[in-house]
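hey can u run this one w/ glutamic acid bound, need the structure tokens asap thx
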Amino acid sequence: MSSQNAQEYIQSIVEKIKIKDYDEPEFLQAVEEVLSSLEPVLKRHPEFIDVNLLERFCEPERQMLFKVSWIDDAGKYRVNRGYRIQFNGNIGPYKGGLRFHPNVNQSIMKFLGFEQTLKNSLTGLSIGGGKGGADFNPKGKSDREINRFCESFMLELYKHIGKDVDVPAGDMGVGEREIGYLFGMYRRIKGSFDNGALTGKGLSYGGSLLRPEATGYGVAYFADDILNYCKDSLEGKTVAVSGFGQVAWGVCKKMEQLGAKVVTLSGPEGYIYDKDGVIGEKVDYLVELSKEHRVGRILSYADKYKVPFYPSRKPWEVKVDIAIPSAIENDILIEDAKNIVNNGVKYVVEAANMPCSYEALAYLTSNGVLVGPAKAANAGGVAVSALEMSQNSIRLSWTAEEVDSKLKQIMKDIFLNSLNAAQSYGLGVNLIAGANIAGFEKISNAMMAQGYY
Ligand code: GLU
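ok here u go:
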């Protein structure tokens, strides 16, 4: 029996990490949020305290930081920082996206790797957690510049990845085109197809049908599961979405199929309000716009469809039934959370990773808003990536219907596992704690079985 009680132990680990990683605010935010959910688990499993499981769990297994130099179209020599965090490999090869965005740094990579570890565990599939990327801004870059950057990035990354080692995918700024350039370079260096090695590939060389839609579709299925559980329905509901990328259009498309209507989209410069809903050919337009992430602006949607555009404002001021942040971390701050509560929004389903600040999240939950946490709600993307790995290894492709029905079932299982975990610890319908607990349970079992690492 442990001499330390669960709460003291958690506090001591948080304090240690605050000292070790004092300059990593996003990582600390994620660690505090997750560890605060695990107190009941430690009470049931005091043996985890005896083996210092939490400190071991919060330390990434490996962190790569490397130089990516390349030459732009004007002949100028450019340098960026590349990252790959292999956070936890206890339940399978590291798996997670690559993000190309100017704000990428060690803290953001680590928080994303940590969240990914729990998310991937929640999918029920055998994938560990990792994340990577570069502080490279794809906006305004030519196709050749993107190609050269991807090649230079892969010239280092290839040393660290492989089908049974670490399987990267896309994230912000990395779509099918970038995955193509990255995989092309990987294959040339390795001289092997290596079962695909990356996911999010094009359909002609091992990609999975519905992978581009998967994150957004999964979020919509998860919202559907939440509302059904609450004896409510998506039919006729209005939805505020932020962002206008791949996740956002996936949400729009599936919401339309499930009878709900997305009425807002946003970019860094403001948001649009489309009272008739982002439906039909408007979604096709959005798909095209999101591919142009170097130049695309949500303002073009307002111009094309003659809908109002609100500069420098966020969609959280609109009265809707459901809010789905689908852009970037810390998109919903305390004043936005107050707007959401004042507008009577009952559900917030997180499509982006950590879209709510710690304070905003606390405000939403204490005011009765039911929050579907990102690591559960947006797990459909990585789940279909794992289905892509399976298809590559059996050298067969499943139909869109097969992938969609597997995705729907996976999302339902994630919802039920999160709910059951919360309920089994007397936490009611607290899906935030439930998802943390359910994700952690599998990893903690695997860590206990595999020794002291
Ligand atoms: N970047 C996505 C995520 O946050 C997908 C990762 C993957 O498919 O490996 O889950």
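The radius of gyration is 21 Å. anyway lmk if its weird
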